[in-house]
Amino acid sequence: RKEVEQDPGPFNVPEGATVAFNCTYSNSASQSFFWYRQDCRKEPKLLMSVYSSGNEDGRFTAQLNRASQYISLLIRDSKLSDSATYLCVVGFTGRRALTFGSGTRLQVQP
Amino acid sequence: GAVVSQHPSRVICKSGTSVKIECRSLDFQATTMFWYRQFPKQSLMLMATSNEGSKATYEQGVEKDKFLINHASLTLSTLTVTSAHPEDSSFYICSARDAGGTGLTDTQYFGPGTRLTVL
């Protein structure tokens, strides 16, 4: 079983749509959670951290459910510029590296 | 925000040659840097953890004699792919963790990546 699992997609949605991505992680001792965005042939960029209380940043809302070991990302009012691969990322404090999911590809269409 | 640079951004080499990739944290000190590899349409896979002043820790399946890592200062780590072969062609990305951070958020900053093509 992969440490971090995501639906690879692609999710093809029209502009203005709301889209949700889910992710599950296997290690219950994981301590930090993130969503990264990766554009084609570029490095990943941090989109937002994810907290148990849920957090929102503009059109983006992230949620963490520790009991179910489940992370979600909701994008409202999708823009063409949101087209990218969204990586679910899990980590530990300290020196350990982050563990990346394989990503969910989003294509927003005009 | 914190900036991490990588050099070169792209390299094409012949089979059997060695390639060195540099990763620098430009405006912060990084006691720990990580090297990842990403094949097309796949996730980033951690290759090794580079700790300043000590030997790197390699992930299972990564040959330490083939992928030489040096982390001589708090702002520079290098990855040398020795005797490169076509199967080593990939996107190599480094990341750095801010030594001044609290550790609670474990934020890492990524370099722009190096695309290696071995002919």
Features:
heterodimer; A: 110 residues; six-stranded mixed sheet; 11 strands; 52% strand; B: 119 residues; seven-stranded mixed sheet; four-stranded antiparallel sheet; 0% helix
As residue ranges, the low-confidence spans of chain B are none
Greatest interface and its participating residue counts: A-B, 23 and 26 residues
Structural class by sheet pairing and helices of chain A: mainly beta
> Total strand count of chain B, please?
11
Would you tell me the overall average pLDDT of chain B?
Answer: 89
Order of helices and strands of chain B: EEEEEEEEEEE
The oligomeric state is heterodimer
- Count of separate DSSP helical elements of chain A: 0
Radius of gyration of chain A: 13 Å
Sum up the overall morphology of chain A in one term: globular
Content of β-strand of chain A: over 45%
Principal-axis shape of chain B: globular
Work out the helicity level of chain B.
Answer: under 10%
Helix content of chain A: under 10%
Evaluate the radius of gyration of chain B: 14 Å
| Main sheet makeup of chain A | 6 strands, mixed
If helices are DSSP runs of H or I spanning 4 or more residues, what is the number of helices of chain B?
A: 0
